[in-house]
Backbone:
């Protein structure tokens, strides 16, 4: 028999019908910390390494110190990277199946210790046990299962690629173990070894995971974990002996990483911030959409890079929708994250809480209205109300910057075109959620919104088989799926050796042109030949030093005009793939009919075998023309009732700095795959033989290439490359250039975090295995993952 | 437009007034046409709710008692006799073993109603005399609603005359499947008239209605036609009550309250046997409609076996020992 007071209370509770406390038992997780004496070192070479100094890891729900963790210094990083380097060979020798077995065992370890990891995560991060138990940890296990399969398949499915080597990974605090899984599983499956740094606030589950690797048979040194703060992260990404960097975190830190890694030749994937739109049309299931908002912005206290933080409501239903939303907000429960009946737990750290508060204060100052339900928050710990901000416009700071907290801004639109316009009125492009019961509207908006992940009538859905990652300043590269794995394999075309001697423009020693009528080669912008803005020309020499002709000296304004023209040609991406193929085939045909003329020009300017180069150039155009309507997406089938369309989309406007050698083949090896996928291009041709490119204008004109799809600016490659890198409306930049210029353009690209692809231009472009590959098409696209649930 | 959320804040406050009976209102076909239900979002909400809310210990015991008071203790079997009805009524008067009821301070608590076929209403009324417990009767061509309309209306009238104070009518599902909302409305209005002064529960037979949108629209039409309760199932369809269907119906109830200020009740029925399921439905009521709807005036569980499991769980709470079905009286 229970205590009488407990019994008599039942009748009282019967009248109240409230939820009582339902606390998860944390004693097992605390005991695990205790077994380590409350202090953790780094995990290096399969064992604990004593840290030089430590800092506190606290529970944000209570402010209590959970454990002391090490702060790695340069020597620790050296040790970890060295261990990873040494582990590469044994890891390779294990073979695909051996590596797959390790990853499978890791998945099993996670399942077997799921509750310990879930509770530990909640203690350390403050997120509700419901989320760690039902979402984070199951997704972690799923990720390792999925990649166990890939480990076995990677060599047959990704021919002509190899692992990068040692990968340095830096992850955020919002999904500590899940982000570890997203990073570690594909890196290991692809055959790399890893040094990972968890976020300063949330190291514990990574350390617990490190210990589990022992029981999964992972060879020593394959996975190393160093803990620490931003300084530790800086040391890791700057380390000379890592081959690839993978980062998830804020856009500002992403910029910093891009800058320090510029020119290093390290692979780089960045998964950064967002201000993702959540679009509700009048014909949506409004109650369903309200639940979507809850899952979109109040999941993980809003500390989610893809949070649906910008609510866009069709104006006709604004009052109705907001009324439903406010009612729903009153039933949200905020409190102890270990309580099983809690919707929102604690904000990760008091400093983050202050950031959120500052944003909300700023919004009020700018005239916005902030509303939250009148429920009390716990007295202790870092908590913030689920907050709705209305009377906001795109001009307000809170409508454009990432708050990374439980704060939703609400705006309206009138038409579906306006919804797309507002949705895309952002520097970010991570995710979007679209609510409408009209599939025509939903799919149309989905195709036009600039985001790497689009959820129709759903939100925050994740699966290991479906890629995740952003457009624009939300980063580049994908995590999950085939595209995520590809980011951990280096392709053969990236490893082409330099030719023996770089090619330099010749000097003009003779001044007399042949007896032909004067030819004035201009720039090619928007389908027209235009004079260079600066009004300067330069002379071009043939191999014997004779004056071969003169070209326009392009400058910053010519680049500006070309970028505008290229954006004006966006219809090219919407043309059917068959239509683009036709144009490219026609281009090959027209090049063929002028082959002799181009061959002569090439030989005259370079001394190389022009016939051979033209023949190969035609082959190349023919190759990509054939691929136009075949490089397509895939359909993923995540757990029941949903499909995911993984669609490669054009990057947009691609700057191409062509190699000096092979003036025609080099140009077409880069421009053709880019336009085949629907991009428009601004090409900076060879400095040695730019007249080959200017001759090419007429071929473009006669081949029905729409105006603005290909723009050519002659001049100094370095200067023009800089201008392209600096232009924040250029979406990607490919540079076949020398090391020094590669470093410069990568450094300058941080303005809009454009994707850069730099490689040695002095390779042998005649070698088909290096110059012609589907890899170029992969680099010319980004994958949009479009989730659509179904069922009536 | 005034801030509609204010009204809702008030509606979340507890109040224990007598339930206002619904009345017949004009059929608003535009409102019916505007109904949109997205299946996957309904399913997601229901799938995650179990992880978002739970009640433990004393709270769980209290909630189980509350569920008990909301049960329409039902027997709708072809083999029913006056004897089985008598036994059911006795159980309805004393739903818990007396030692448990005493330990929990629940001696005065009874189930919501007893629910039988029309021909057994008189038996139930006599056996519940003095208990103030209502007798509910199914009617209108239960379970399929396909007997002639005149017969169905007459059956409603008979059940009322026999002493039923609550009548669970069935709709003709064909009206929904063919989109004949006017015909559906007219039919329910006729039952409403025939059941004057009696609590009218409208069974939609959701397992036959093919889509969530149909269920939502049928719910709305039933409320416009004056239903006091909307009820999921007869218990005879292939698929009975479940959480997604309930969520769809509750959202219509909430919207109807928003528009007309009337609180319509909800009754899931069929296949609800576990105490845990009863807690899930109560949670759904609390989340979607609020505290006011969490009592027998606005919430009923149509069940027969559920009471046994609730008794076992309550015994576990009181004694700390797992119980067995045979330690509790059958109904």
Residues:
């Amino acid at each position: 028999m229970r205590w009488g007071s407990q019994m008599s209370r039942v009748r009282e509770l019967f009248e109240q019908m409230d939820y009582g406390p339902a606390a998860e038992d944390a004693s097992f997780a605390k005991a695990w910390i205790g077994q380590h004496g409350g202090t953790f070192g780094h995990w290096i070479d399969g064992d604990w390494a004593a840290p030089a100094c430590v800092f506190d890891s606290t529970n944000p729900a209570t402010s209590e110190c959970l454990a002391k963790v090490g702060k790695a210094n340069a020597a620790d990083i050296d040790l970890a990277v060295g261990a990873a380097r040494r582990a590469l060979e044994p890891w390779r020798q294990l073979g695909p199946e051996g590596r797959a077995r390790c990853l499978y065992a890791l998945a099993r370890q996670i399942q077997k210790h799921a509750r310990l990891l879930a509770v530990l995560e909640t203690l350390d991060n403050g997120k509700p046990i419901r989320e760690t138990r039902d979402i984070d940890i199951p997704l972690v296990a799923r990720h390792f299962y999925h990649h166990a399969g890939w480990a076995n398949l990677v060599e047959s499915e990704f021919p002509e690629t190899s692992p990068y080597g040692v990968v340095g990974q830096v992850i955020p605090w919002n999904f500590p173990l899940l982000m570890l899984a997203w990073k570690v599983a594909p890196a290991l499956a692809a055959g790399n070894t890893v040094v990972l740094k968890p976020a300063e606030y949330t190291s514990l589950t990574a350390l617990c995971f490190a210990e589990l690797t022992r029981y999964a048979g992972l060879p020593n040194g394959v996975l190393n974990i160093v803990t620490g703060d931003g300084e530790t992260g800086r040391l890791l990404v700057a380390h000379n002996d890592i081959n690839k960097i993978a980062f998830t975190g804020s856009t500002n830190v992403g910029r910093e990483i891009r800058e320090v890694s510029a020119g290093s030749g390290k692979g780089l994937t960045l998964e950064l911030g967002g201000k993702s739109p959540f679009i509700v049309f009048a014909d949506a299931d409004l109650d369903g959409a309200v639940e979507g908002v809850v899952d979109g912005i109040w999941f993980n206290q809003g500390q989610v890079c893809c949070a649906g933080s910008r609510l866009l409501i069709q104006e006709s239903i604004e009052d109705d929708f907001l009324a439903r939303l406010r009612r729903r907000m009153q039933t949200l429960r905020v409190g102890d994250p270990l309580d099983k009946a809690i919707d929102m737990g604690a904000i990760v750290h008091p400093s983050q809480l202050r950031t959120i508060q500052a944003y909300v204060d700023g919004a009020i100052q700018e005239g916005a209205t902030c509303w939250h339900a009148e429920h009390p928050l716990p007295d202790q710990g870092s908590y913030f109300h689920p907050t709705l901000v209305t009377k906001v416009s795109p001009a307000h700071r809170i409508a454009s910057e990432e708050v990374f907290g439980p704060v939703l801004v609400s705006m309206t639109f009138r038409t579906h075109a306006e919804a797309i316009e507002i949705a895309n009125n952002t520097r970010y492009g991570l995710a979007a959620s679209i609510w409408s019961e009209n599939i025509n509207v939903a799919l149309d908006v989905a195709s036009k919104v600039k985001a790497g992940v689009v959820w129709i009538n759903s939100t925050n859905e994740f699966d290991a088989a479906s890629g995740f990652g952003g457009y624009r300043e939300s980063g580049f590269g994908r995590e999950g799926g085939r595209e995520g794995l590809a980011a951990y394999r280096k392709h053969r075309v990236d490893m082409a050796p330099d030719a023996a001697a770089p090619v330099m423009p010749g000097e003009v020693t003779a001044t007399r042109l042949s007896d032909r009528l004067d030819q004035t080669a201009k720039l090619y912008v928007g389908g027209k030949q235009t004079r260079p803005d600066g009004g300067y020309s330069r002379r071009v020499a043939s191999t014997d030093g004779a004056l071969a002709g003169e070209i326009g000296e392009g400058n910053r304004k010519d680049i500006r005009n070309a970028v505008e023209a290229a954006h004006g040609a966006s219809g090219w991406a919407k043309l059917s793939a068959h239509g683009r193929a036709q144009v490219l085939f026609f281009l090959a045909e027209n090049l063929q009919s002028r082959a002799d003329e181009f061959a002569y020009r090439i030989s005259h300017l370079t001394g190389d075998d022009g016939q051979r180069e033209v023949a190969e150039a035609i082959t190349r155009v023919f190759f990509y023309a054939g691929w136009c309507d075949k490089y397509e997406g895939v359909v993923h089938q995540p757990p029941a009732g949903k499909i995911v369309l993984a669609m490669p989309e054009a990057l947009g406007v691609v700057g191409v700095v062509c190699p000096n050698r092979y003036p025609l083949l080099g140009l077409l090896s880069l421009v053709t795959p880019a336009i085949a996928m629907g991009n428009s291009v601004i090409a900076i041709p060879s400095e040695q033989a730019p007249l080959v490119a200017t001759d090419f204008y007429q071929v473009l004109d006669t081949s029905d290439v729409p105006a603005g799809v290909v723009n050519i600016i002659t001049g100094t490659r370095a200067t023009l490359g800089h201008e392209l890198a600096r232009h924040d409306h250029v979406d990607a930049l490919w540079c076949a250039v020398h090391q020094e210029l590669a470093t410069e353009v990568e450094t300058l690209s941080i303005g809009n975090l454009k994707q850069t692809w730099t490689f040695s231009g002095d390779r042998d472009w005649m070698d088909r295995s290096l110059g012609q590959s589907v890899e170029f098409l992969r680099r010319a696209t980004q994958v949009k993952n479009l989730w659509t649930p179904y069922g009536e | 437009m005034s801030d509609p959320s204010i009204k809702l804040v008030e509606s979340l406050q507890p109040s224990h007034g007598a339930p206002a009976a619904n009345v017949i209102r004009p059929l608003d076909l535009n409102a019916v046409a505007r109904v949109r239900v997205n299946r996957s979002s309904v399913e997601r909400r229901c799938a995650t709710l179990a992880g978002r809310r739970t009640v433990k210990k004393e709270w769980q015991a209290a909630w189980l008692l509350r569920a008990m008071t909301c049960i329409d203790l039902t027997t709708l079997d072809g083999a029913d006799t006056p004897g089985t009805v008598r036994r059911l009524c006795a159980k309805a008067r004393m739903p818990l073993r007396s030692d448990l009821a005493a330990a929990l301070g629940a001696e005065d608590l009874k189930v919501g109603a007893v629910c039988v076929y029309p021909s057994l209403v008189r038996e139930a009324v006599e056996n519940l005399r003095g208990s103030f417990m209502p007798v509910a009767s199914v009617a209108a061509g239960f379970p399929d609603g396909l007997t002639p309309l005149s017969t169905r209306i007459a059956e409603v009238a008979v059940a009322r005359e026999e002493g039923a104070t609550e009548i669970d009518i069935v709709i003709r599902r064909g009206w929904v499947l063919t989109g004949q909302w006017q015909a559906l409305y007219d039919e329910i209005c006729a039952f409403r008239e025939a059941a004057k002064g009696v609590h009218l529960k409208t069974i939609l037979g959701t397992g036959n209605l093919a889509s969530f949108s149909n269920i939502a629209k049928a719910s709305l039409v039933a409320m416009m036609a004056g239903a006091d309760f909307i009820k999921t199932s007869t218990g005879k369809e292939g698929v009975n009550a479940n959480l997604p269907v309930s969520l769809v119906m509750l959202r219509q109830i909430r919207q109807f309250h928003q528009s007309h200020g009337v609180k319509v009740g909800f009754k899931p029925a069929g296949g609800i046997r576990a105490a845990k399921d009863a807690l899930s439905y109560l949670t759904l009521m609390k989340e979607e409609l609020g505290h006011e709807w969490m009592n027998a005036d606005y919430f009923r569980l149509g069940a027969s076996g559920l009471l046994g499991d609730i008794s076992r769980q309550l015994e576990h709470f009181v004694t700390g020992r797992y119980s067995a079905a045979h330690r509790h009286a059958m109904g």
Remarks:
- The radius of gyration of chain B is 19 Å.
- Chain B touches chain A through 50 residues (CB under 8 Å).
- The beta strands of chain B are 71-74, 113-116, 135-139, 166-170, 199-203, 229-231, 265-267, 301-303.
